[in-house]
Amino acid sequence: MAVLPVLVYPHPLLKQKAPSLSPGDPQGLRALEDLEDTMSAHPGCVGLAAPQVGCLARAVVVDVSRSVRPCENHGRLKLLNPDVLEATQWKIGREGCLSFPDLLANVKRAQRIRLKAFNEWWEKMDLVFTGFEAVALQHEIDHLDGILFLDRIRSSKDLFERRKPQSAAL
What we know:
- With 170 residues, the chain is of the alpha+beta class.
- The chain has helices at residues 26-40, 131-144, and strands at 47-49, 59-62, 77-97, 100-118, 124-130, 159-161.
- Helix content is 17%, strand content 34%.
- The longest helix is centred in the N-terminal third of the chain and has 15 residues, at 26-40.
């Protein structure tokens, strides 16, 4: 549908909880299409949540197969009303976010989750995710609840400035 601008912190929509979508709500499908288009316009992006593009809807797109680090995955996931049912095997790892383009942080996340959601055709799903895919899903689902990855850090020592690509010297 459209490549939308990604909201950058401190935009107030990033801290709002998105309401659940009613089954069949066309806003969900529109949000998923916009998220796919916007994500495709950002090389290296592995996930995006509707609030990040100004849409208060419980919709996320995650595709860790786009990652430079190969990992087990389910391919492109387009999820409506996702809800984590179980979370285990916690580990601290480095995360970034398009809404914080200059920052990275060490965040504690589950390495195995079970979640329920609806796909783009409003079919119920109950799946288990592991590793980087589980982490990416938790990050995006947090966005739906107005929780930012910086809300999950323990101290300022877990916060890092993202390195800028250096131009080649002539």
